[in-house]
Amino acid sequence: MRKSKRFASMPVFSLEEGLHIGSVKEIVVDPDGKKIAALIIEQKGWFKEQRFIPYHKVYSVGDDAITIEKTSGAQRATGLPDIVRLLKDKVKVIGSKIVTENGNLLGFIDEYYVEVETGNITGLEFSGSLINNVMKGRAFVDISYVRTIGREVIVVTNEALENVFKLDGGLQETFKNVRESTGHFWESTWQKTRDFSSSVNKSIDKVKKEIKKIEDEENSKDLKDGQSIRTLPGEQPHDHGKTAGTGRESPPAT
């Protein structure tokens, strides 16, 4: 699973020709399929040309680059009318309002997560007002609770309310407060959806662990990038007065 923003500016290489085709400029979303339809690539060179890679043409999405089998996998828009139509629809996901079927505004989408093997969207990260700002911070809702991905609004089922979890910690106290403030609505919703929720909740812990892993990897990468910036080419990182490779203190200068 990968955050959508991680795709931005990733280099794309062809396996057969061994060429650097370009870098990811944008993602085209298929809202009906709830997946990535294609990657828009900005090619290298003086005469930069925008091309599209249908997601089924992606061979692999690694930590540092994306690979496809052949350069021909990056196609012109004229040969991909369905993808061009999706691009014109301008469904961006990030920045959209997220609303329940019964009209509760939960907040705004900050990010979405993608299964790199298939391009399927697995869940949405959002923040903002959830039931009069009862919930604070970032929260996650699984894609199984998403009814509609629209141009401006994403609609989730009423069941999503009981299955949203906070990325910064637990929601037990928050949901207690929400239930107290909404009364009978919560009780009736819970009774109607208890069986449905139990089957989906089995995967929640797995999703939490994957998100935690993603964020830990990003923090680790940021730390490494910071260290590499502070260290000039050919230099060794600061060793705090120890002789390199020995672990012993360097002798004082005479």
Quick take:
This protein has 254 residues and is of the alpha+beta class.
Q: What does this molecule look like?
A:
This protein is α+β, with helices and mostly antiparallel strands and 254 residues long. It folds into 2 domains: 2-88, SH3 type barrels, CATH 2.30.30; 97-205, PRC-barrel domain (SH3 type barrels, Roll), CATH 2.30.30.240. Helix content is 27%, strand content 29%. It contains 5 helices and 14 strands. It has helices at 81-89, 160-163, 172-182, 184-201, 204-230, and strands at 2-3, 11-14, 20-30, 35-43, 50-54, 58-61, 66-68, 97-100, 105-114, 121-127, 139-142, 146-149, 153-156, 165-166. Strands 1, 8, 9, 10, 11, 12, 13 and 14 form an 8-stranded mixed beta sheet that branches. The chain has a 6-stranded mixed beta sheet with strand order 5-4-3-2-7-6. Strand 8 and strand 9 form a beta hairpin. The longest helix has 27 residues, at 204-230. It is globular and about 50 Å long. The protein starts with a strand and ends in a 24-residue tail after the last helix.
Fold topology:
Blueprint (H helix, E strand, L loop, with lengths): L1 E2 L7 E4 L5 E11 L4 E9 L6 E5 L3 E4 L4 E3 L12 H9 L7 E4 L4 E10 L6 E7 L11 E4 L3 E4 L3 E4 L3 H4 L1 E2 L5 H11 L1 H18 L2 H27 L24
Parallel strand pairs: 2-7, 8-13
Antiparallel strand pairs: 1-9, 2-3, 3-4, 4-5, 6-7, 8-9, 9-10, 10-11, 11-14, 12-13
